[in-house]
Design a protein that fits this description.
- The complex is a heterodimer of chains A (152) and B (729).
- By secondary structure, chain A is α+β, with helices and mostly antiparallel strands.
- Chain A contains six helices and five strands, in the order ββαβββααααα.
- In chain A, strand 1 and strand 2 form a beta hairpin.
- In chain A, helix 3 crosses helix 6.
- Chain A is globular.
- The model of chain A has no long low-confidence stretch (mean pLDDT 97).
- In chain B, the strands form seven sheets. Chain B has a seven-stranded mixed sheet. Chain B has a five-stranded mixed sheet with strand order 1-5-4-3-2.
- In chain B, helix 10 packs parallel to helix 11.
- The chains are: A alpha+beta (152), B alpha+beta (729).
- At the A-B interface, helix 1, helix 3, helix 4, helix 5 and helix 6 of A face helix 6, helix 7 and helix 17 of B.
């Protein structure tokens, strides 16, 4: 039995302790907004926050997470898509296929918590999520928009 | 235009809604006979096959092509809505199931979403569908009022009787409209009068992609569903010899270990992670077959031989290139020769391949992200051993397609084979990234040898482009071959095909192909053969310009007099980057242009090389697709094309050792990330009169523009990709 706090709710799940957090979120808890892309922490589609820190959940065994650590997924980032990053994403109509975007948004939301006005170099260093459709330039513009609080 | 037919809509997938808080696919997974979907059908009969108007004026537009990020869903809806004269803020979309298409004499036409054809192949009949529905709605209102339809007009989902000023909403007359006979003829608007089409409208499918509510195939959950992980023999042409199911049957969650086909084994478990964990522990013996020693070096040697072979298929020929090349050489004139190579690439969609199947003795249903619902249906029926009429496909938005999810329905066949061994239980098959990398439908590898002769005035007198390498059609669509020749090999290089013809008029020209087919499955990879053809032609033209002592744009311009549209996009890109003025110190520029997928495209790149490292600062891209249905989406496709094209140029390469691909994940198959992404400026020059594609052509000019700029920066021609092998990135 593993205890997890996800989006403010506690969950007790019966899983093997080495199960990656990604799969517990998706399969036991039913939160599929966090995506599977690579399984080796390369692509970032599985990014969630653990105590506010962007974490690639596909390589994070649930046994390494304490019950009182706060896990936030895309579903918990805001109740209604109103997080500044989500609003900027909507204002600039960023997603194409969208599969990588929830992980991208989670990575950016975490970055802005620690660095409210990231430079382009900061973004290049911190946002390493893979997008194959090619949204990068709109992602960059949306990060700056969210940072400037101009997304409405 | 079809006549209205009775349609069961109980299995329709409701697409993502246009409005925040609207319907989400996640809550409307079609499942045979659900009360919810039947209710929806009961309250909203269709006006015609393309249009459903609900009493609250919500319009559901049927989209046969697939949305995989390219914006087709929104663009096609715009075209229907334009003619329908409906209120755009109330537009939603839905995918009609492919089985329904067959039952209705293919009323929705082709479902194939590839070759940048989603809009350009269907704009005419989807607009007619919208226009016919508008006509029927107006007629229904006129009939209700007892007035001539000609006195009525429609706008924003409201019908107005001119003389009296009376109005009716679409939702009030939709049911009556649906009972009318559709008009025999409709007149389409002139694109210059468009109000919805042609405008940079936001996508219809964005909101759910920001909140995690968008359901992809990998996310699907059906009642009672089990999960499957699969391994196929990693060696091309190898088979599954045996496996020891007993060794893992007691592992947590495992339900069954199944032989899927002659090369694959799958574990079915309660969760996918448990299925994958057990599969990793499963003792498997492969029969690696005849290719077990194949390496990339073997393939390179095979192709190199083709560069010099006597026999080749001719794709474009003018004058006598061989004779002129020999004559110039003998006369001591300037002859330039270069050899290029393009490696295998994997599509690497972000969402790995998947499909969910439910099989019973008399029915097979598959839920799948697919670029071609009808191809999925055919594959499902074949694997199910059931007539097509007893099978159905429910399409789901794709987490990327790029050509991988069209022709190739291997994952559908596998999922049905697994489900067939678990009758009555839905099973979701999801590939690992490793499976995806090892079992791609790879961008084929080719090499090219180019020889050009310059006359005394530095004009191009003769050009021979010999391509050696793999044919896609020979492997996947042999019915498309022409007397043994694969015409698709010559994308962008033909004399006069509207799909893509060469910009340059060369008095003596020979473009031919020595087909050499390694035992590696090839596929249509976004941009297809245009990708390498543009590199071969545009980099070599640059080489010839340099040999002639000419400025690259001026050298091209002289050869392009007969092709003003090609030239127009090239000059637009050049002007955009400031070609006529020198770049900043340390910056260097390059150009490239090509025609493909019916559109004219060009790019100009500005790069620097510092401490041996290439940095791409800026790209200006120009495109003439004839008509632009949504400029905001075209801009996104052009920008995205550089991510795809530059990923290949800088990093992309699948190599073989031991008959299998060596790259299994993004750690070894690197792709472009934010830090490498240049600024991209898009110039649209829609010249009208034709409909070209947008999703693919620009990819092809990414690499040549950068490679030509790289030569300007370094004085070195890099003729083999990716550039990481030259330690430039």
């Amino acid at each position: 039995m593993v205890q997890l706090t996800v989006n403010g709710q506690t969950h007790a799940v019966e899983v093997e302790p080495d199960t990656p957090l990604l799969w517990v979120l998706r399969e036991q808890i039913g939160l599929t907004g966090t995506k599977f892309g690579c399984g080796i922490a390369q692509c970032g589609a599985c990014t969630v926050h653990i105590d506010g820190v962007a974490t690639r959940s596909c390589v994070m065994p649930v046994s390494a997470i304490e019950a009182d650590q706060k896990i936030v997924t895309i579903e918990g980032l805001s109740p209604d898509g109103s997080h500044p990053v989500q609003k900027a994403w909507l204002a600039l109509d960023v997603p194409q296929c969208g599969y990588c975007q929830t992980g991208m948004i989670m990575a950016v939301a975490s970055l802005l918590e620690t660095n409210p006005a990231p430079s382009d170099d900061d973004i290049n260093a911190e946002i390493t999520n893979i997008c194959r459709c090619g949204t990068y330039n709109r992602v960059r513009a949306a990060i700056h928009m969210a940072a400037e609080g101009k997304a409405g | 235009m079809s006549i209205r037919q009775s349609v069961s809509r109980r299995n329709f997938i409701v697409g993502s809604a246009a409005t925040l808080g609207g319907l989400s696919l996640g809550f409307h997974i079609p499942f045979a006979g659900t009360a919810l979907a039947q209710d929806a059908a009961a309250v909203a009969p269709e006006v015609n096959a393309w249009v459903v108007v609900k009493p609250d004026d919500t319009v559901a537009i049927r989209i046969a092509r697939s949305e995989m990020g390219q914006g087709t869903l929104t663009g096609l809806a715009q075209l229907v809505a334009e003619e329908l004269e409906c209120d755009w803020s109330k537009v939603t979309t839905e995918y009609p199931p492919p089985g329904e298409n067959l039952r209705r004499d293919r009323v929705w036409g082709s479902y194939s979403t590839g070759g940048s054809r989603g809009i350009r192949d269907s704009h005419d009949y989807v607009r007619k569908g919208g226009a016919a529905a508008r006509h029927m709605l107006i007629t229904a209102a006129a009939t209700q009022w007892g007035v001539p339809a000609g006195d009525c007009t429609a706008a924003d989902s409201v019908i107005t009787h001119g003389p009296s000023g009376r109005t009716l909403r679409y939702g009030e007359v939709a049911e009556a409209a649906g009972r009318l006979t559709p008009p025999a003829e409709v007149t389409l608007k002139d694109p210059k009068d468009w109000k919805i089409a042609g405008k940079p409208l936001p996508r219809l499918d964005t909101v759910d992609k920001l909140t995690g509510r968008q359901v992809y195939g990998a996310d699907l959950k059906l009642p009672g569903m089990l999960n499957a992980a699969i391994k196929a023999c990693p060696v091309f042409g190898g088979t599954l010899a045996s496996f020891d199911a007993a060794a893992i049957e007691t592992m947590p969650g495992v339900k069954k270990v199944v032989r899927v086909d002659e090369r694959s084994v799958a574990v079915v478990a309660d969760t996918w992670w448990r299925a994958k964990t057990a599969l990793d522990a499963l003792p498997i013996t492969w029969d690696e077959g005849p290719n077990k020693d194949l390496t990339s070096a073997d393939i390179r040697a095979l192709l190199a031989e083709g560069l010099e072979a006597d026999e080749a298929f001719i794709g474009n020929s003018q004058g006598d290139a061989r004779a002129e090349l020999a004559r110039v050489a003998a006369a001591g004139g300037k002859v330039v020769t270069a050899t290029y190579a393009f490696p295998y690439q994997n599509h690497a969609t972000m969402e790995p391949m998947n499909a969910t199947a439910l099989w019973t003795a008399d029915k097979c249903e598959v839920w799948v992200p697919t670029q071609n619902g009808e191809a999925s249906l055919a594959a499902a029926a074949e694997a199910a051993g059931l007539p097509v009429g007893q099978c159905e496909i429910y399409k789901i938005h794709l987490g990327g397609g790029f050509g991988r999810r069209g022709n190739f329905q291997d994952y559908v066949r596998q999922s049905v084979s697994i489900a067939k061994q678990m009758p009555g239980t839905p099973v979701k098959l999801l590939w690992t990234r490793e499976e995806d990398m090892l079992h791609g439908a790879y961008h084929p590898t080719t090499q090219a040898k180019l020889t050009g002769a310059l006359d005394a005035d530095g004009n191009l007198a003769a050009l021979h482009l010999r391509i050696s390498g793999q044919s896609i059609l020979a492997a996947v669509r042999p019915e498309g071959m022409q007397g043994g020749m694969d015409p698709v090999v010559f994308q962008g290089l033909t004399a006069n095909l509207p799909e893509g013809h060469l910009a340059y008029t060369v008095p003596n020209l020979l473009i031919d192909h020595a087909m050499r087919n390694p035992p590696v499955p090839p596929g249509f990879w976004r941009g297809v053969n245009l990708n390498q053809n543009a590199i071969y032609v545009e980099c070599f033209i640059d080489e010839l310009a340099h040999a002639a002592g000419a400025e690259p744009l001026a050298f091209r311009r002289k050869l392009m007099a007969n092709h003003p549209r090609h030239l127009a996009v090239l000059e637009a890109a050049a002007n955009g980057i400031g070609w006529e003025t020198p770049p900043a110190a340390g910056r260097f520029r390059g150009l490239g242009q090509i025609m493909g997928f019916g559109s004219y495209v060009a790019a100009a790149a500005e790069v620097s090389v510092e401490d041996g490292e290439l940095k791409i600062h800026r790209i200006v891209a120009a495109t003439d697709p004839g008509h632009v249905v949504n400029p905001a989406q075209v801009e996104r496709q052009v920008e995205g094309s550089f991510v795809y094209g530059l990923s290949a140029c800088l990093y992309g390469e699948c190599t073989l050792a031991g008959g299998r691909m060596e790259q299994e994940n993004f750690d070894t198959y690197e792709v472009l990330r934010m830090a490498q992404m240049p600024a991209v400026e898009t110039i649209m020059l829609p010249s009208g009169g034709f409909w070209g594609g947008v999703g693919e052509p620009t990819i092809a000019v990414a690499a040549p523009a950068v490679l030509n700029a790289l030569f300007a920066a370094t004085g070195t021609r890099y003729r083999t990709l990716p550039l990481k092998n030259h330690e430039l990135v």
